[in-house]
Amino acid sequence: MKLHATRTGYFCLLVFCSSALAACQEPATGLAIDNVTVVDPVTGAAEKQRVVIRDGIILSVSDQADSVERTAATLDASGHFLIPGLWDMHVHFLYEPALRDGMADLFLDYGITSVRDTGGDLIQMRALAAELKARSTPVPNVYYSGPLLDGRFVVYDGGDPGRPKLGTGIPDADTARSYVAQLAEAGASFIKIYELVSPGVFEVLAAEAREAGLPIASHVPLMMTADRAGPLADSMEHLRNLELACAGNWEALLAERQRIIGSFVEGRGYDLRRSLHSLQRVPAIEAYDEARCDKVLGSLRDTIQVPTLRLNTVAIELPFDDADWARALSELPAAVAEAWQANADQMRRNAPLADTTFSRWSQFLIGRLKHNGVPIGAGTDTPIGLGIPGWSLHTELAQLVAAGLTPREALHAATVVAARFLGLEQEVGRIQPGMRADLVLLDGNPLEDISNTRRIRRVMLDGIWVR
Questions:
Q1: CB-based contacts of 226, cutoff 8 Å, min separation 6
Q2: The pLDDT value given to residue 27
Q3: pLDDT (0 to 100) of residue 26
Q4: pLDDT beyond 50 at 459
Q5: C-alpha torsion sign, points 22, 25, 28, 29
Q6: Taking residues 281-299, what's their average pLDDT?
Q7: For residue 65, what pLDDT band results from cuts at 50, 70 and 90?
Q8: How confident is the model at residue 162 (pLDDT cuts 50, 70, 90)?
Q9: CA–CA distance, 218 with 220 (Å, rounded to integer)
Q10: Which residue among 55, 111, 185, 430 has the highest number of C-beta atoms inside a 10 angstrom radius?
């Protein structure tokens, strides 16, 4: 029995050694980023980390001294900082035709690996998505809604030069049902509801989108208040129309608004919306009631607010005053850069005459959102309002911090919150094992100074360095 046991032991040892030798001879794969400070939007910074990436996925994140994983390639990132790939949650690829084909590259240049297109012609967006997917060069992840779902009158109806057709009319419940089904069939990632839709149609659109599994982005419709519309949506854009809900006399303002819209029988949707904003926005802000506003914001704790603060504050935070503006502008096509510079010059001349009430209100409201536990997402409305693709997201982060967020909270708004909107929070947005390796390597710590998000050393998409 002893002899038999010994022979068996030798055999097992031989099998073990052979297996180990075979394992040792297997070629190492993947990439290790060594000695890096990992900046996670939830847990904060961890120094001297080793991040191992294989097949586009983060395999492990560990202390450098404890890691034994073999890889085919390593990058010594001593003195550098690794963050998740950034998102821009509010983009319009089709707004400026001359930028249509170059926007994707600009986003990657600035570390933006995912974008949410929040309104454009469905056929054109499908074609653009197919073109981007077919490219031999890397492009960011693009999630699109199709057109702005508006009311009987459409704000962006394509009737004016410089304002393309981004919207479509949804006048009744039957149209709402059929159009949501069409969007789902066409591969839209979510729906976008706009300002002139009626309350009844809004509710049908939201219900149909829920049934189809499509997240809902929305403006606050002019005939509704934020505390009625917001809980039915997954995100709300621009902080627009929150001022009415936060006013002490909100009921009277809403009744007047509903009366004006109800009596509007002929004209342009764009003019109708603009006239109502001009008539009621400043009076609503002047009638601000904090107790009422906190009640409204308390109803929005499950609805992401995408402030597009850099757009809302363009009257007081002139983009061309940024030291990096000229360089960023020079990356646009020459004709676009020339036209935008002319617009910038005009804005500078008009700046002393601009009404800054809504700009100041938007900055103020960031603190109230934070106080009330309302989630904030980072978006820019690029390219509207001189929004340079990619560059503007870093401006947005800086403004969010100036308005009251911490740098980590701003980073969270441009990563985790954006992923959550699309139900992707288990796949992307953090630096954890199992997450997609969309990453940005920085030369400075963004938790110490949010402007360090601009100091980009490398950009990774699906585990491959693309910049």
A1: 220, 236, 241, 242, 244, 245, 296, 299, 300
A2: 67
A3: 59
A4: yes
A5: negative
A6: 98
A7: confident
A8: confident
A9: 6
A10: 111
| Entry pTM | 0.92
- Percent of the chain at pLDDT exceeding 90: 90
Q: Please, what's the b/e burial string for 97-117 (b: 16 or more CB within 10 A of its CB; e: otherwise)?
A: eebbeebbbbbbbbbbbbbbb
Residue with tokens 């219900």: 207
Report whether pLDDT(416) > 90: yes
pLDDT above 70 coverage of the chain, percent: 94
Q: Which domains does the chain have, with CATH numbers?
A: 33-85+430-467 (2.30.40.10), 86-164+218-428 (3.20.20)
